[in-house]
Write a structure and sequence with these properties.
This protein is an alpha/beta fold and 591 residues long. Helix content is 47%, strand content 13%. The strands form 2 sheets. It has an 8-stranded mixed sheet.
Amino acid sequence: MEEDDRTIVLRGTGVSPGVATGKAYVFDRLDAQISFYRLEKPALVAREIKRLRAAVKASEEQLKTLKRRLGEVEGVKPVYIIDVHLMLLRDRVFLSTMIDRIRELNVNAEWAVRLAVDKYREVFEKIEDDYLRERFNDIRYAAQMILRNLAGGEQGSIAGAGGDVIVIAADLSPADTAQMMIDRVLGFATDIGSRTSHTAIVARSLEIPAVVGLEKITRVVRTNDTVIVDGSAGLVIVNPEPEVILRYEEKRRLAQDARAECLRYACLPAVTRDGRQVAIGGNIEFVEEIPSALTYGAEGIGLYRTEFIYVNREQLPTEEDHLSNYSRVIGAEGLSWATVRTFDLGGDKFFSNPKLAKEMNPQMGLRAIRFCLKEIDLFKVQLRAILRASALGRTRILFPMISGVEEIRRAKEILEEVRVELEGEGVPLGDRIEVGAMIEVPSAVMIAEALAREVDYFSIGTNDLIQYVLAIDRINERVSYLYEPLHPAVLRMIRHTVEAGHAAGIPVAMCGEMAGDPLYTMVLLGLDLDELSMNPMAIPKVKAVIRETTMADCKGLLEEIMSMSSGVEIRRAVEDTMSRLFPAEFGANGQ
């Protein structure tokens, strides 16, 4: 990856929920370059006042046109906040304040607008109420429209963005935001703003994913960069990895389907009709996703991917940086447990600092636990932070890409060294920290009995396991048709892992995408998995299937398909069963 195309993660304030992925359009509204000159003759004063009145009138007409066009968009009502700006433009005091500056100081109209706005700013900054103080922005937005028309309408316009883009700007007016709906803009992100701004209110009313208060997004994003806006978590990801794009596209799709189901099933326990209960966890990448995970029914965090802590940094994260993140996850109110996966970095994974050589096959190169065991100092920084945070709640550490007993033993040795160091320093730790192995390499499946004696739990990562078992790159379009979670080899590996874990008395979870697809839920129940962890927005539908089925039905389906030798045949049988038992979800009109 070239330096200019590095992944950048920015955190701001999510003001309108939803996920949007698209190309960036950097909107540059001229605001700083305001001309200034003295008016030497009385006739010039009269001309400037006439220019100002004409610009105000033009701004008013533009807002009226925008309001009318917005009303023509199907399913959208004109936004009342536009009326606020119309009232301002028609307000005699607002106009006379600017005219008085021209007359008293003999300055041009642009500078008079600037002086008037500065005066209002002084007044509003003295107001203690956040919501009322934000109303100054309405004056500023109206002034910007006037300035644009004084300049002959040559300043930037959202209308020039075209559809299917993510608008990036220092700030946006409610009129700009409303224009986005007309132009079918996917979402927006700004340097400044808050949840109480009118722009945020407009974004929510139009259901445009939006994040504000990012501080520097206009400095790091270029037009045509690929951008993800997560308005629920308040995150913007610039130049994301292909795998991250796929995950967020899945989040976007699931969000559209999850609202009604969320209300019905999200907060109910995942218990079958005959009493089998399954633990349900949420997979997250950022601490900002925890409220959403709880809303959609996660009982705990089944997978916290920690790689993004390393992104967008000039220097490696410190122990305190790690601790800040882990404390917010492990100590989050409402979560029964938190699984922190140690970083899966190296190979083709993004990373801020390491100077790693290019690898011919990075997916199978120096990454994950292999990288950790090579860079022990980095590994210890992360482990120290996890152990320190463990005092705040039930903590599970998950080591990724384990392929042999030696790796898990060495990782445990380093963890024990860190624990002894912290105890020697008098640092409080959790009473019992559970250590798990991520089963995502075929060799780990084949020696699962030995690995089970070394750890407290297994977590099956189906994303990598499937691609390794079937020898395909899951994001390669040419072979993506071969990616089949219901392939008999995959199912047998899952069954073997569960049986080995249970024989050793440890629970077995699944944290791959397979766990979050309700089509597979009955199969996974039949395989006796103890925990399913997934994208939080998938939880309601999975819970719905669990609560409406029985273990007898699940075991019957599993027995039927395990005798089959073809993934196509198995898929057909599973789809037929799900369509019969859940016609609304999986029938001709369902999934």
